[in-house]
Amino acid sequence: MASRQAPCCLWLLSIVLLMDASARPANHSSARDKAGHREDNEILPPDHLNGVKLEMDGHLNKDFHQEVFLGKDTDGFEEDAEPRKSRRKLMVIFSKVDVNADGRISAKEMQRWIAEKTAEHFQEAVGESRAHFRAVDPDGDGHVSWDEYKVKFLVSKGHNEREVAEKIKNNQELKVDEETQEVLENLKDRWYQADNPPSDLLLTEDEFLSFLHPEHSRGMLKFMVKEIVRDLDQDGDKQLSLPEFISLPVGTVEDERGQGVDDSWVRDRRKEFEELIDANHDGIVTMAELEEYMDPMNEYNALNEAKQMIAVADENQNQHLEPEEVLKYSEFFTGSKLMDYARNVHEEF
């Protein structure tokens, strides 16, 4: 079987080298649309952090594998993309991961690639944070006060900027709904945590980055973990049991379809808890274990993730990925399913 696979790998890789003339042009309009959408967003710390395994609220990041395999290079894998071009693009990525050009991807090569794509997400977050910082620093003095941020936040919620600023300046009561008030209190807690000693309630650009993206700061990463444990911990012991971690989110299952979704959600949570987060497999996840799991720059996590990703598609069990395996399991790596796999591979030849 191996003798038949080797020439297939070489053939697929040769296609990569010959296809520059027909490669899909970059979809710059997509990037512009995303950038424009970000400008319109509220200046809240995002719930979803690219390249981080859990959302800020403790839910699994369902796009994590695609984020650490594709990085920002997602154009060409949309649902309406032309399949042949998507396959070619995927093979270009394969050749970049395959550093030694032996026609297969090892765990070490995948680990290096994951670290590189994670760093891309870090740089993207830095750029976004700088843009938001300028938006909330109207006087351009390089510091943002809590009151300045509070004004911009309430304006994003539909309040009048001049009216809000005047009331805050004169210490007058602001009339906001209960939900907004709760969000403000949580944000102020995060603001205090991001404010490095000596505490002055003024955030520099670096501190503001930690406020929006706690994965950039060890101290803020700890704070995010505490928030997740607080939200999921039902018995108050400041650690998570399996039942606590897999407990269904608020909502009622109304039909069989909904039950199926919930069952799948529980299965994913259980697997993540037992195989990846609970490092010593004692049935309990401590804050330290969760922090190590959440740290996107943890080299051990990157290697473990690389091995997990390879295991998903490694049909011949050689602990490596061949081109045809990546193509067959394209939905796992790119979020895009390349239909009719057998015919598609035949077309490549």
TrEMBL record:
Q: Origin, by domain of life?
A: Eukaryota
Task: Please give the chief subcellular localization of this protein.
Answer: Golgi
Q: Which GO terms describe its biological process?
A: calcium-ion regulated exocytosis
Q: Where is the composition biased (Basic and acidic residues)?
A: 30-41
Q: Which residues, if any, are the signal sequence?
A: 1-23
Where found in the cell? Golgi apparatus lumen
What is this protein's name?
Answer: 45 kDa calcium-binding protein
Protein species of origin: Molossus molossus (Pallas' mastiff bat)
